[in-house]
Amino acid sequence: MDQSFSLILNAKRLFRKFLVDGYTMSESERLFFIRNQQKILRCESYENLRNQQALGSTNISNIGQRVILSSSFTDGARYMMRNYLDAMSLCKWFGYPDFFITFTCNSKWPEVQRFLKDTQLHPEDRQDILRRLFKIKLDAFIKDIRENKVFGKVQVVVYTIEFQKRGLPHSHICLFMHADCKLPTVEYIDPIISTEIPNIDDDLELYSLVKEFMIHGPCGAENLNFPCMVEKKCSKNFPKQFCNHNSVDSNGFPLYSRRNDGHFVEKSSVQLDNRNVVPYNKYLLKRYHTHINVEWCNQGSSIKHPVVIRLPFHLPSQQQVVYKADDDIEDVLDRPSIASSMFTSWMKCNEINKEAQKLTYVEFPTNFVWKLKGLIWKPGEVGYAIGRIHSVSPKLGEAYFLRILLNKVKGPKSFEEIRTVNGELCSSFKDACYNLGLLDDDKQFIDAIKEASLSGYGFYLRFLFVTMLLSNSLCKPEIVWQNTWEYLSDGILYNQQQRLKSPDADSVLSSNNRLITEEIDYDIPNLKNVFDRLFVALTNEQQDIFLDIMDAVEVYSLFMVMVEQNKSKK
């Protein structure tokens, strides 16, 4: 008996179920631990705890709020939103991504086939091997893009990994290019992105790879059961239109060169030409032998380079304190980390560092590093980082206006300096915003909508605008609309286009029907002679009826012919 034989690894579907059950058990244990901690962990502001201490209270188990599932729980709602906002911060800093790439796992990779050669297993029976190899290939792929500069110098790589219904992983990757390597016009696309079937005589390897991995379909009337079909229409909008050169449509989407050069491949007995080619890069396709869709984009997950630093802030003495319900209030308030937060440490750093005084709060991580040990900011020792200030709702009043000021004021040493304008101390952060001209002509609301557009969808922006209208917050709503209508209308045109009816597939299938062909294959002069002969034979009453019916054709009126029984209805 083979001592290396493992029953569980050769159990096929049972092994897959074992993996799912094992992961579920692990996640359940994590949630069970957090749920138990929820009973004892509470959160309250520093100021309220000081007030309780002043009143002589030592029991803090009944004040504050219970801690909910935090963003530290992987794949939780707050975890996903935090990473999403981090990615949107990159868009705010570097502009929109330049390339969108889909990298897919290939179960026929030679490494997989070699591993399964002497077994009775299929690739899907060893999901652990497939996913491990996919991650290795993905890391090599990203390294290839960054170091070998396939598309040029890359500043930022953002990616997320998803799993298809059939179990294979794939990754969506956004590339933010260096300013010197951005594609200025569509003419620069040709060397990077291809959407045509290569000549089999010129490059047999590339032809075979395109045929195997980069052809969409057949779908549509030829195959109504293809996965992309939704309501008898291809959800990916294939086949595309022939196009002799690269261009950009009215909505900003690229139209790649798809010449009608006569090249085609045959799949499922259907000939597919350049209209069915998924955009690809020749070098990457040859190197990785898998489906790699490369798209050029003008607009917009695990974050790679650079790091996004999340910057909390708070009103004076309003920083949140987490403690256990049975903790003593004196012990809680004596902790070194309680009175000093990342935000207040930033102001302390401004007191002693002249370079720090040249930066706003959001710019601070570009030159300084937050040291958790010691709770201090130090001049940058590692790579480039980007700051993201936590967003707040306008309903929070002073906190909202404080956030506005933090994007404008450089190097304040105290809360008072933040609300000091031209040497005059304002009574509130809102007054400071007014004195700086940040609230004139509803500018703060226009900026709020524009900032929200970096991370929110169109329907959210419209909801925000309606909330502003209903709350009578806008002085001149028409000015806000004129400055933000492009953001507020985002997605409306696309959604309406999706609702447009496409030709019924049954009609398409009937387009070559013999009876229909015979019906429309008529001789107009001959039919006119027949009409003239028959019309003259009509009685006056029949002619009146005929003319009434013909006049009503354009308005779709209805007519009923009623005659006595046993009478002819010709």
How is this structure best described in words?
With 570 residues, the chain is an alpha+beta fold. Among the domains are: 227 residues, no CATH class; 51 residues, no CATH class. The protein has 21 helices and 20 strands. A hairpin with a 2-residue loop joins strand 10 and strand 11. Helix 14 packs parallel to helix 16. The radius of gyration is 33 Å and the shape is extended. The termini are far apart.
In short:
This protein has about 575 residues and is of the alpha+beta class.
Question: How do the helices and strands line up, and which of them pair or pack?
Answer:
Elements: H1 13-38, E1 41-45, H2 46-54, E2 65-66, H3 77-94, E3 99-104, H4 110-115, H5 127-147, E4 154-163, E5 169-177, H6 204-213, E6 229-230, E7 233-234, E8 247-248, E9 254-255, E10 265-267, E11 270-272, H7 282-288, E12 292-296, E13 302-303, E14 307-311, E15 320-324, H8 329-333, H9 336-339, H10 342-352, E16 368-371, E17 376-379, E18 385-389, H11 398-406, H12 415-418, E19 420-421, E20 424-425, H13 429-435, H14 443-452, H15 458-470, H16 477-488, H17 492-499, H18 505-509, H19 514-520, H20 524-536, H21 540-552
Parallel strand pairs: 14-18
Antiparallel strand pairs: 1-2, 1-15, 3-5, 3-12, 4-5, 4-13, 6-7, 8-9, 10-11, 16-17, 19-20
Helix pairs in contact: 11-13, 14-16
Protein name: Helitron helicase-like domain-containing protein
Domain Helitron helicase-like: 6-173
User: What is the mean predicted local confidence, pLDDT?
Assistant: 82
Low-confidence stretches: 299-305
Please count the helical segments.
21
Main sheet specs:
5 strands, antiparallel
Widest sheet, order of strands: 12-3-5-4-13
What characteristic shape results from the CA principal axes?
extended
Helix content: 25-40%
**How much is the radius of gyration in Å?**
33 Å
User: Could you give the distance between the termini?
Assistant: 90 Å
Give me the secondary-structure category.
Answer: alpha+beta
User: Into which percentage range does the β-strand content fall?
Assistant: 5-15%
Number of extended strands: 20
